[in-house]
Amino acid sequence: MAYTYRYSRPLVHSYRILHKLHAVSSCGQNRFSAFFSTEFVGDTPVLVRDFIHSALYHPDHGYFSQSPRSVGVLDRGINFHKLQGRKAYMSHLENIYKQNDVSWFTPVELFKPWYAHGIAEAILRTTNLSFPLKIYEIGGGSGTCAKGIMDYIMLNAPTRVYNNMSYTSVEISSSLAKKQLETVGEVSSHLSKFKVECRDAADRSGWGDAEQQPCWVIMLEVLDNLPHDLIYSENQVSPWMEVWVEKQQDSGKLCELYKAMQDPLIKRCLDVLNVDKDFKHQGIREASFPSKMWSKIFPKAKRSWLPTGCLKLLETLHGALPKMSMIASDFSYLPDVKVPGERAPLVSTKKDGSSSDHSSYLDAKGDADIFFPTDFWLLERIDHYSSGWLKSRIESFDRSSKKGKKRRIITLDTSVFMEEFGLPTKTKTKDGYNPLLEDFINTKFYLSVPTHNTK
């Protein structure tokens, strides 16, 4: 298995959840319960997405809010040309992790400035430079990407493009927002063009009036940490139910509660997943008669994770930035996931330099990263839905209707993206090994731009 920048180690654990019809609780099953901060779940049950949001982003107890040290920052870029090959690179990387008390280093950090330069080149090749260049970055981490992009534009774009550009980072973590200003401020001329807005990008009220000019949105390793919802079915033919998290009053343990489907955001996400059911196998289909008979003989519970946080964010972005172009990069799959369910997350805690993976998302106590694989087929559908094109098909009786403006979208492996837009020779070792092209096999780039075409 190729190296990925968040380690995952096998952790053997299994469990099953007993259930009842309608709204039922799993609190009696101790194997699925976990002690947790009462700051996350009070006396009222919460949807799984709200639980995950608190576990990651609670201002006092959330994983990303406690300290910026979860995201690593290198003092200087790695000189790959001085390393002999893969073994030397892995040894160098191991030393870096030992010297820094951090959970992980993102690709934009490991391959700075070249990773950010590749993104900047993709923007310059694609954007309409007759308009002032406006860039928004969601979840800018330590600011390394912003600085790298602004450096590249300053050195490679026409002077007027750099002088008139604006770069806005929308960052939910106040500690990371402060770090971004420090990083970008290393080049004094950048500061007049850069600002950080410390807020939740998915909250439409924070964006103000819609921006009618073309702009770019960058999201690097953002989709994987967006809250997801969980739906559950007791067997192959039973209806899907929403999963909520509640706390036992006597013990304080957390457990699942199943309710009939009613949440509007979950329903919209299922609509996106199910439209044109015969188009892809990912759709949640109605069971056939043989399947119903088989399910009675061999009933099997089902769990499916829905990217409702992604849907909410893209609905917000398309509403606030209707002419946006977008570049996103993230995991296309995650190895050794122990949490059950389709599109399930990896829940990982790092302590004293070693990582441990949890078999339940309820084990997250503000000290664990919760990150999901990105279903890029589903992401494209969510993008089309949020921009209005696919939504018109879902709401129309005529399924062949294609009202609205379909976006131009392409998904590329990280290696393909960097070979096209980057300078991969800069990340090559002496013997020709290139970690940028060879190691990140479970990550992809997603590019989406508006178009006036309706076909």
Automatic annotation (TrEMBL):
Enzyme Commission numbers on file: 2.1.1.320
Superkingdom in the source lineage: Eukaryota
Principal subcellular localization: mitochondrion
Pfam families: Methyltransf_28
Record has Mitochondrion as a keyword: yes
InterPro entries listed in its UniProt record: NDUFAF7, NDUFAF7_sf, SAM-dependent_MTases_sf
GO biological process: one example: methylation
Keywords from the UniProt entry: Methyltransferase, Mitochondrion, Transferase
MF GO annotations: protein-arginine omega-N symmetric methyltransferase activity
Localization in the cell: Mitochondrion
Enzymatic reactions: L-arginyl-[protein] + 2 S-adenosyl-L-methionine = N(omega),N(omega)'-dimethyl-L-arginyl-[protein] + 2 S-adenosyl-L-homocysteine + 2 H(+)
Recorded GO CC terms: mitochondrion
Class of this enzyme: transferase
Family stated for the protein in its record: Belongs to the NDUFAF7 family.
Function text: Arginine methyltransferase involved in the assembly or stability of mitochondrial NADH:ubiquinone oxidoreductase complex (complex I).
Protein name: Protein arginine methyltransferase NDUFAF7
